[in-house]
Design a protein that fits this description.
The chain has 347 residues and is an alpha+beta fold. It contains nine helices and 15 strands. The strands form two sheets. Strands 5, 6, 7, 8, 9, 10, 11, 12, 13, 14 and 15 form an eleven-stranded mixed β-sheet that branches. The longest helix is centred in the middle third of the chain and has 12 residues. It starts with 6 loop residues before the first strand and ends in a 5-residue tail after the last helix.
Amino acid sequence: MSDIAAHLLRIEIGEDPAERLDKALAALVPEEAALSRSRLARLIAEGAVTRDGVAITDQKAKVAPGEVYLIAVEPPRAVETLAQDIPLTVLWEDEDLIVIDKPAGMVVHPAPGSEDGTLVNALLHHFGGRLSGIGGEARPGIVHRIDKETSGLLVVAKSDRAHHGLAAQFEKHTVHRHYTALVQGVPSAADPRLRGIRGVNFEQGGILKITSQLARHPTDRQRQAVLFTGGRHAVTRARTVEAFGGVAALMDCWLETGRTHQIRVHMAHVGHGLVGDPTYGGKRKLSVRAVGAAAAEAVANFPRQALHATTLGFTHPVTGEELSFTSPLPEDFEALLATLRAGPQIT
């Protein structure tokens, strides 16, 4: 380890852990720590992982429930983030915050493999290099994110006072967020299969409620997994807006919590994965008889998860004004729905 002061990450081993130290830690490290399996292995080898003050350098060492490990993580090195002139669709802007309608294909925050062309790169140019938390926060001004291939609304802080105020609202789950999703199958309260899935229940009006814990998948770090012990609490609600031939449905989904991939993984958990989702199995072909050849082909070839952040509402953290924004579906999503609405062509 270098002379730079390290942050100590405390990990307590829960019930039924992986037998090996590296795998157990990988499953329990918080997502915001951004520690890959390979980096964890290096930290173990370097003596940065201790138990009761003793360095554990064998990544295959056995672990037991209740053990507490400390991981000494050096602060990330400062990386210069480029300001890039990338067009933005701005719905609201004042001295404290900005609301953006993000296109599909844009990453929100720079990361390995996506160092430029991101929303933050664009905002740095838009703000003339000034962005809340630069040099302090790991994710300057970003209080929530949507996936690269998800389109729609998000709010970004421009001032520290807005940053703290917005973060508090997200933490308290008082931000109003609705997403439009196209899923495989048609969720129904009358479906005994759906009612038999753990974590599923239906509320008045046929609203589907999915409650679970979510955590990084134990073997695929690009995915999230549904758990019922450990992880982070997650609640998604959804209602069917429109059905297509009994094999696909347009859904209004809203979040009580906001976890990574939450809607995508929850809908896949209940057997209604998002159309076009390559990570959670949304590539099943629809019945040509049910929707027609053109629609079946359009769904099969849709290049991203059919998910759009449609509505965003919150209290302005400085003025106290109640703000609400709505984003229309992007052209690719609308075109897909138009093909489905055309139905089978009778000849």
